[in-house]
Amino acid sequence: MEPPSRPTLVYDGECPFCANYVRLLHLRELFPDLQLLDARLNRDHPAVRQLKARGLNVDEGMALLSGDRIYHGADSIHALAEFGRPNGAFGRINNWVFRSPRRSALLYPLLRGSRNLVLRLLGRKKLGF
């Protein structure tokens, strides 16, 4: 399966944390070539199929596909912090926190657990992939 032609961030658009993270970081401004892909609306997109083929679950973490590399979960937010320039207060805090691979790995399970709890409270189903 061929990687996407431009960097692609696959996330759950119905997850308030994921959607707000994408919005608050101003990812379109930081990475003009970045394709933002809501996995719920694009289940058959080649990037989503590529994640499924590699056994990567979007319910377990957003994924950044760049060239032949896939960053998943904690690695995806670390990569975004590593490559992006912070924009605004949220961006500066995010950059400081997630530029560290160790902090990313420690905090991501808490973020994922919070996501799952909020989805359940809102009555939204997990993606299932």
TrEMBL record:
Pfam families: DCC1-like. One of its GO terms (molecular function) is protein-disulfide reductase activity. This is Thiol-disulfide oxidoreductase.
